[in-house]
Amino acid sequence: MTFHGFRSATTTGLAARCLQDLRRRDFVCGAALIDGSWIAGQERDVVIDPATGEEIADVARCSAADMNIAIAAAEKSFAAWRGLLPAGRSAILRSWASLMLHHSEELAMLLTCEQGKPITEARHEIAYGAGFLEWFAAEGERAYGETIPSHKSGSLLQVRMQPVGVAAAITPWNFPVAMITRKAGAALAAGCPMIVKPAPETPLSALAVARLAEQAGVPRGVFQVVVGDPIELSAPLLSDPRTRALSFTGSTQVGRLLLEGAAKTVKKVSLELGGHAPFVVFDDVAVDKAVNGAMAAKFATSGQDCLAANRIYVQRKLYDAFVEAFAAAVTRLKVGHGLDLATDIGPMTKASVADKCRMQIDDAVTKGARAVCAKQDDVLGPNFVLPTLLSDVTEDMLIAQEETFGPVAAVLPFDTEEEVVERANASEMGLAGYIYTDSLRRAIRISEQLEYGMLGINTASFTGPPIPFGGWKQSGLGREGSRHGLAEYMELKYVCFGDL
Ligand code: NAD
Fold it and tell me: What is the complex's ipTM, to 2 decimals?
C-alpha cells in the first residue's frame, strides 16, 4: 500500500480518517499480547491525535495481575527459546523484520496518527526499526565466548555468553517502533524473552509490531506487549525476581526511579535517558555545511530526540553569518499535521513537552535572547511549538541548562577551543555531541576531551544498528545496538576444566 498523503487546510479528522482506513485493513489493534492471547481488558485507555487532541482509538488498560501473567509466560517460554539454535532465532527475527518492511506504510501511518511526526520521518523510523531486528539476527549468531590462556597447568579456561533470562522494556513515545525493536532485537537474539510496556501515548504502534512478531513465528510468551498505567505495570516488573534485565528509554527522572526499583532484585539495568547535546561550530567551516548539520541535528523528530542539538556553540567570527543563515532556514520550516506531506515539524506528542518549550523561550527572551520563529500554518493546536531560533543565549538561561525536547534552537557564541570544551562538558548529561571543523587535528583533540558517549564530527547523522548507542554521566547506563547491545542481555559464565 502506498500512502499519497493529505494536503489539507484543516487538520480535524485527518488521523481519524487514516485510522478508519487502517481498521479496514485490520491494522489497528487495541488488545494487549499476553501469553499468546490478545487481551482486550475490562478497562480502556484512549489514544489521541496529538495534533488535534481528538480521540482516535482506545486500547486495553492492563492491570498488575495481567503483568504477573506475562512474567510467568515469559519465564515459561525461556527454556525453549534459549534452546533454539541461534540460526533458528535469527530466521524468526528476519521474518519479523521483513513483515515490518512489507507493512511499512501502515506502520508509518499508525505511528504518525498517534505520535505526530511527519510521515516521511515515520517511514524512516520503520526502516530504522526493522534494521535492528535484521542486525541482531546476524549478531546473535556471533555471541562468541573466549578461551583464556590458562594460569594453571592442566586446565582449560572458558568464558561463555548465556542469555540472562526474562527481560523487560519500558519504551518512550518519541520513537515508538524503533525503541522497541532496538531492545527486542537484542533480547530475542540473545535468547531472552521480552515484555514491553510501551508509552501510553503510543500503544498502537507497539501492538501492531507485536502482531507482526506473532505472524513471524515468535513463540508464545517470547515477545509480549502489556499496555496501561506505567506505575502499576512497572511495579511487578521491578519487584519480580524472574525479571532479570530491564531496559528503559525515557527521562532521567524516571530512569533513576527504575534503577532504584531494580536494585531490590539486582537486575541487569540499561538506561537510555536524556541528552543536552552541544553542537560546536568552529570558524574554519563553511556556514552552509554547519547550518545544514544544525538543522538536521535540531529539528529531526520535531526536536523530540535525545540526540537533538540543545546548545549550538558558534565561534565568534562565524557567529553572525551562521545566525543569519540558520534563521533563514528555520523560517522555511513548514509546521503542520504529520499526515500532510508538506510538513517538516509536527505537534509535540505531549502537552507537557510543548509547555516546557514555551517556558524556555519565555525565560530566554526575558533574559535577553533574540527570537526568530517559523511561519505558522493555518490551523494549529496547543501541542504545536513554532520552530524557534534563540540567538545570544547565555549559560544562565534555562535552555542552556536543561534538555528542551522540542523545535527550539539555542545559539551561543564562543571564543576559544578550551573555553568551548569546558562549557560543553559543564552538564550532568553526556549522551551525544557534535563538532564541525575543518581541522582534523582539532577534531581528534576535542573528541578525546568531550565527556559524551557518542560524537558526530562534521555529521549530524550517525545512529544505526551497528553503533553502541548510549550516554555517559546521567544520560544512562549500558549500550543499545552493536555487539555491546547484545551483551546487555547476556551473562558471562567462566568455566574452568581442571585435572586435564
Ligand atoms: P517518561 O520518562 O515519563 O516516559 C518514558 C516511559 O517511561 C514511558 O513508557 C512512560 O510510560 C514510562 N514511565 C513514566 N513514569 C514512570 C514510572 N514512574 N514508572 C515506570 N515507568 C514510567 O518521559 P516523558 O514524561 O514522557 O517525557 C519527559 C521528558 O523525558 C522529555 O521531555 C525528554 O526530556 C525525556 N525523554 C527522553 C527520551 C529519550 O529518547 N531518551 C524519550 C522520551 C522522553
Answer: 0.97
- Per-residue pLDDT tens digits for 422-439: 999 999 999 999 999 999
Say whether domain 14-273+477-491 belongs to CATH 3.40.605.10.
Answer: yes
Rounded CA separation 354/384 (Å): 7
Alpha helices in 240-333 (DSSP H): 252-263, 287-299, 316-332
The residue whose CA is least distant from atom 6 of ligand 1 is: 172
Domain spans of the chain? 14-273+477-491, 277-464
Distance between CA atoms of 70 and 172, rounded to whole angstroms?
Answer: 20
pLDDT tens column, 445-463: 999 999 999 999 999 999 9
Closest CA to 304 of 52, 48, 107, 117: 117
**Taking CB atoms and a 6 Å cutoff, what residues make up the pocket around ligand 1?**
170-172, 174, 199-200, 230-231, 234, 249-251, 254, 257, 272-274, 306, 350, 353, 403, 405
| Phi, psi of 417, rounded to the nearest 5 degrees | -60, -45
The residues near 90 (Cβ < 8 Å, ≥ 6 apart) are: 137, 138, 140, 141, 189
Cα 371 to ligand 1 centre (Å): 28
- Give the HSE-up count for residue 44: Cα atoms under 13 Å, Cβ half-sphere: 11
Q: Which CATH superfamily does the domain covering 277-464 fall into? A: Aldehyde Dehydrogenase; Chain A, domain 2 (3.40.309.10)
Q: Can you give the pTM of this predicted structure?
A: 0.96
**Residue 136 grid cell:** 541482531
d(CA 436, ligand 1 centre) in Å: 31
In 35-116, DSSP assigns E strands to 37-39, 44-48, 55-60
